[in-house]
Amino acid sequence: MSCPDSLLLTDLYQLTMLQAYLDHGMTGTAVFELYARRLPECRGFLLAAGLESALEFLENARFSAEEVAWLEASGRFNRRFLDYVADFRFRGEVRALPEGTAFFPDEPLLQVVAPLPEAQLVETRLINLLQYPTMVASKAARSVLAAPGKLLVEFGLRRAHGADAGLAAARAAYLAGFAGSSNVLAEQRYGIPAFGTMAHSFILAHRDEARAFADFALSLPRNVTFLIDTFDTEAAARKVVELAPGLKAQGVNIRSVRLDSGDLAGHARKVRRILDAGGLPDVGIFASGDLDEHALEELADAPIGGFGIGTRLATCADQPYLNCAYKLQEYAGRPKRKRSEGKATWPGRKQAYRRFAADGRMAGDTLTVEGDRQQGEPLLQRVMADGRRLAPSPPLEEIRAHAASQLAVLPEPLRRLEKGLEYPVTIAPALRRLAEEADALSTGSKP
Amino acid sequence: MSCPDSLLLTDLYQLTMLQAYLDHGMTGTAVFELYARRLPECRGFLLAAGLESALEFLENARFSAEEVAWLEASGRFNRRFLDYVADFRFRGEVRALPEGTAFFPDEPLLQVVAPLPEAQLVETRLINLLQYPTMVASKAARSVLAAPGKLLVEFGLRRAHGADAGLAAARAAYLAGFAGSSNVLAEQRYGIPAFGTMAHSFILAHRDEARAFADFALSLPRNVTFLIDTFDTEAAARKVVELAPGLKAQGVNIRSVRLDSGDLAGHARKVRRILDAGGLPDVGIFASGDLDEHALEELADAPIGGFGIGTRLATCADQPYLNCAYKLQEYAGRPKRKRSEGKATWPGRKQAYRRFAADGRMAGDTLTVEGDRQQGEPLLQRVMADGRRLAPSPPLEEIRAHAASQLAVLPEPLRRLEKGLEYPVTIAPALRRLAEEADALSTGSKP
User: Fold this and answer.
1) CA–CA separation, A430 vs A77, rounded Å?
2) What does the alpha-carbon distance between residue B148 and residue B140 come to, in Å, rounded to a whole number?
3) pLDDT at A48
4) Considering only alpha carbons, which residue of chain A is nearest residue B155?
5) How many angstroms separate the CA atoms of B116 and A226, rounded?
6) Is residue B440 very low, low, confident or very high in pLDDT (cuts 50, 70, 90)?
7) Number of A:B CB contacts under 8 A?
8) Would you call A27 an interface residue with chain B, using a CB distance cutoff of 8 Å?
9) What order do you get walking across the sheet with A324-331 strand by strand?
10) Which residue among A220, A282, A421, B230 has its CA within the 20 to 30 Å range from the CA of B297?
């Protein structure tokens, strides 16, 4: 499939609204913010991810000549519109939470300040680029917290919703603290360590399981993991014990055996005894198969050193979308908010401040209007002006270290899987006043 | 983001197994089949989709010189492997269910016959390309069945898991019977009609809601839909009534008003009365906001003519992954199956036959080995030989007509949203015999 990275990858209304904005001279400065309306039921916090892709998108957002010609041929648009899109580039300013930052509902993940037509046009793809990595990072962080000291590997490519999702999931999981991914392109593209074992088909293609193990080990002697559940898990573990001395003599380093089905804890205990009794105490046990953070917590006491976590993570199976929005907060200097039932928003350009307790843990955030300095550290940083990044994106390792430092200072209730107390995000008086002002200014409610 | 369409978009073990296969001369003919192990709880049938992308992937699967150099530099692979991947192309044969075909667990969606290294290497991406569109088409079909005669539009791009997911969702929903999508690229790429309304931000950017309506209508007079829930839905409907005569005089065609929040049925009834009383009986009501097939069923009696269905469809929110597998069924002429706990499979090259009742409805399928002719129509068709498509892919409109004809002959219980009787898929005696033979041949179980 040829690559769908095009500015036409948007909702039609972004283009029709653009024409209306241009026709009526609505090109004043707009402020949009992208934020979560609510936490998913099963999350105590969110971890920001996807910013690098979003900034890359904004820097390179152009319509090709072919696309402009197609828009013209569609018959929907006028000359003013066509001239505008032919020259389009994003020239706005962006503030954002650095990737790896923990955040909460109503706190802007991203703020765009740009002429209204520019800020509006990029909405759909910005949400598309930020929502999914943020969901994966937020869920992956739970596995990291649930299984301290275990090797966690992202395995979700095959069931991710497409190529982009597979790649983004590997990056988001690594960012959140996973050791790596099965995804080779993620290693080539991002330097994320790739991990691999073998498939059942490899075993099945051979006439004999032991022969399959030996073939694989001799071809790839450096870090061998044998998949041992194709027929009889414990029998296969005994074969590994039998094969080990011969393989060792040929320079093979058996790193682990992998379980992928059945009662993982029960099999792990039996296999551990077989390996130990067979003189292989250093051969680890790696497990996979329908795992998520809850399964990891249940397997905490099993003799399993590493986990492949795929489908449920890469599809965010417990909550595959975030209730998030990219909303107009200010236009031409006037604060804005909508009051649709159940969807009212806080208006204006915002900043969030975070306070810390004496022990270094996060103690509470304050959401307020820009310029209203509050106690604590401001969370949003200016990352783009005139459509160009102010600095190169930080290396992934730095983002990963930032995420780790965020997880380290989460309040204790947020580190647990079950939902505990909500993290306090206070709305500052200045923001409440602005909301009242926005309501008073809006004539929409006075027909 | 540069496009992730690369053969490195795979699991590392596909490459390490490839090296082992090559080293040990395991290049005999393999048969792999991709199928669903189980239906999701909330589905009575699946609708095949994604085949066109899968065949395009197979036809174009190559490693670039840069990728081969990267693989060499990784230090993991030997010369034999590197020479092989430098020249790699897929030369296998493919049988598949035509897109739009209804199918059931254990029935192959796709069958690959190729030298083992080729058939194995393409596993990850084939699942990735077929699973998601099939899930979306299967779910979209439920909305089509739940809301006969309504205009259904796919709105999910922003919350889809990436760019390619957004595009694939638009195509899969259209294929299943939706009228179109908000996704402009889907129109440019596939000819899928794009639909659009306006956003709350458009209303908010204006000082006055009525002014926003008029601005939009005069810029895009042909098929106007006003979003009326930003402040007070019924008040906004009355504004539309007031504006209508003036707009009509200026050539504006008001097609509908859109509701996006609150009690959709309640608002729709009130708005309908306002529009009718105001002389606008032809202005329709379009609704959106967290909709899925169950919401459509509940809204069946509301005066709503069309629906925008986004997030829940494009993320397959009720079941975001399919329990599916791509399994080795035969190698070098010998049938294969694994017997991992809970994951045992039917071996061999298979074909499914479908019987029909006197009223034309589907009456039951038989799954058997290739060549064992059964009553009914064979479902899998040969679509690729020597790595090339045997015929151009059918036009999307033809696929859509095929899907419609499949939905028309679904047994009545499968047309309802709640789970009814399971559709009967019989395993033929010849396939049962082959499974026994595969078990007898396998030495894996006899350590």
Assistant:
1) 42
2) 12
3) 98
4) A11
5) 19
6) confident
7) 392
8) no
9) A334-335, A324-331, A29-36, A110-115, A93-96, A381-385, A388-389
10) B230
Please name the residue of chain B whose CA is at the shortest distance from the CA of residue A158: B128
The answer to whether the Cβ–Cβ distance between A128 and B442 falls below 8 Å is no
pLDDT of res. B3: 59
Q: What is the CATH number of domain B26-58+92-126+325-441?
A: 3.20.140.10
Q: Which of B163, B209, B444 sits opposite A4 (nearest CB)?
A: B163
pTM of the model: 0.97
Kindly tell me the burial class for residue B169, based on how many C-beta atoms sit within 10 Å of its own C-beta (0-12, 13-18, 19 or more). buried
**Digit-coded pLDDT (tens) for B246-293:** 999 999 999 999 999 999 999 999 999 999 999 999 999 999 999 999
Burial level of B183, CB count in 10 A (0-12/13-18/19+)? buried
CATH no. for A147-314: 3.20.20.70
Contact A219 B57 (CB under 8 A): no
Nearest CA in chain B to A311: B321
Tell me the CATH architecture of domain A12-136+319-441: Alpha-Beta Barrel (3.20)
The pLDDT confidence band at residue A447, using thresholds 50, 70 and 90, is: very low
Output the pLDDT for position B81: 98
Angle between helices A12-23 and B209-219 (to 10 degrees): 100
**pLDDT confidence tier of residue A445, bands split at 50, 70 and 90:** very low
B446: pLDDT confidence band, cut at 50, 70 and 90?
very low
- For chain B, the structural domain boundaries read 26-58+92-126+325-441, 147-314
* Residue in A1, A82, A138 to test binding to B, most B beta-carbons within 10 Å: A1
User: Is B26-58+92-126+325-441's fold the same as B147-314's?
Assistant: no
What digits encode the pLDDT tens for the residues A351-407? 999 999 999 999 999 999 999 999 999 999 999 999 999 999 999 999 999 999 999
Of B15, B161, B218, the CB nearest to A165: B161
| Contact status, residue B336 vs residue B328, Cβ threshold 8 Å | yes
pLDDT tens digits, B291-348 = 999 999 999 999 999 999 999 999 999 999 999 999 999 999 999 887 766 666 799 9
Mean pLDDT of A151-165: 98
Note which residues in 81-140 of chain A have CB less than 8 A from chain B. 116, 120, 123-125, 127-129, 131-132
Please state whether beta strands B93-96 and B381-385 pair in parallel, antiparallel, or not at all (unpaired): antiparallel
Rounded Cα–Cα distance for residues B179 and B174 (Å): 6
* Token pair listed for A396: 């992934």
Whether residue A207 contacts residue B22, with contact meaning beta carbons closer than 8 Å, is answered with no
Q: Which two tokens stand for residue A96?
A: 């954002």
A261 vs B13, B188, B342: nearest CB: B342
Distance of alpha carbon A117 from alpha carbon A17, whole angstroms: 8
The helix/strand/coil state of B94 is strand
Q: What angle do CA B39, B44, B50 make, to 5 degrees?
A: 65
CB contact B338 to A (< 8 Å): yes
**Chain A residues touching B219 at Cβ < 8 A:** 16, 19-20, 23-24, 78
CB contact at 8 A, A9 and B163? yes
d(CA A37, CA A40): 10
Please compute the mean of the pLDDT values over residues A28-33 and round it to a whole number.
98
Closest residue in B to A209 (Cα–Cα): B444
Cβ contacts of residue A443 below 8 Å, gap of 6+? B207, B208, B209
Task: For residue A256, count other CB atoms closer than 10 A to its CB.
Answer: 23
Q: Looking at the complex, report in whole angstroms how far the Cα of residue A91 sits from the nearest Cα belonging to chain B.
A: 18
Helices (H) and strands (E) in chain B, counts: 17, 19
Best residue in A158, A195, A292 for a mutation probing chain B (most B CBs within 10 Å): A158
Nearest Cα to Cα of residue A401 among A100, A72, A126: A100
